[in-house]
Input
Amino acid sequence: MTATPSRALTVAVLGTTQTLSWGSSYYLPAILAAPMAAEFGLSRATIFGIFSGALLLTALLGPAAGRAIDTRGGRDVLAISNLIFAAGLLLMGLAPGPLVLGLAWAVVGVAMAMGLYDAAFATLAGLYGKEARNSITGITLIAGFASTVGWPATALMEAEWGWRGACFGWAALHVVLGLPLNRLLIPRAPPPEKAAAAAGGDGPAPRMRDMALLAFVLASAGFSAAALGAHLPGLLQAAGTTAAAAVAAGALLGPAQVGARILEFGFLRKVSPLVSARIAAAAHPVAVAVLLAGGAPMAAVFVLIHGAGNGMLTITRGTLPLALFGPVGYGRRQGIITAPARASQAFAPYFFGLLVDAYGAQSLWLTAALGMAALAALFLLRAQGRGGG
Output
């Protein structure tokens, strides 16, 4: 189905505001953890521990945020998230000590529950129902560059204004850019009754078994993505690459993710999301087998295969629940299904770091096993309607 101009504008707006929200929250500690820790006399691990607490809060609040989007539509919820992001970042920049810093990250955690991918996906499901798949893919294509934009922007602001000034800069962007875009350019969702009728009534009730299986799939994928996102260069060096080669191979992660999303938007758009999810889940175990069998010369191939699978899984996180359960009640259900994934992402960098320190590249057997288990779970699921997989 060809996107209308209004839908294309909505996708462009959400892609832009998602880039802002991810860049000013999830990708912030990578640049600011060191100067924050130095000023407060803490370790970087402590700063990341505080950030993990914010991610856990996000997991807990996800179902409530999704329910609000189901009821009121995503426009107002996303706009409010910009204000809460701004408040948390302002408080962070003003923090006199670790206690207030932790409180600031808690406020940002509330904003992440209301303003990251799951909220954007629920917004699109409310607007376009079962036809939201290509729109979901579109915003992930744009926001896939959040780290590419966010890390240099944070580093530049920190170099010019210090870490506190970087927080103030991101807070200002939420007020002057994110808030008006979300509030003024995202369409108002139809009333819940009308949306349910357009979707074909209340739809079949999702089985708890299927929700649990999908939650496991997303939690497994989230663990592996977060673990490798934090430790990829070190893992590659443990596999025998030089530091320079590890950095060069790691730089392929972003392009691989975006390339896979382009493939999903084009060639795979007519394929069931369940089939796409199975392909994506199989990618990481294959990548691990290639690296552990071939060693350092296969580092770039490992990153490309893993990155492609991870890029597709980000899309299926939004499209697969839509295919399995339909659009009615999508927001609340999405919050429940993705809560374990958010929690696993919070713990993954620390736990996997311990494994890497102890076992080096052999730690990848864990993430490969999780990938295979997720693939098996996906073969126990079946999407509604035609082409269910």
Observations:
- The domain at 5-198 is CATH 1.20.1250.20 (Growth Hormone; Chain: A;).
- Residues 146-185 form the longest helix (40 residues).
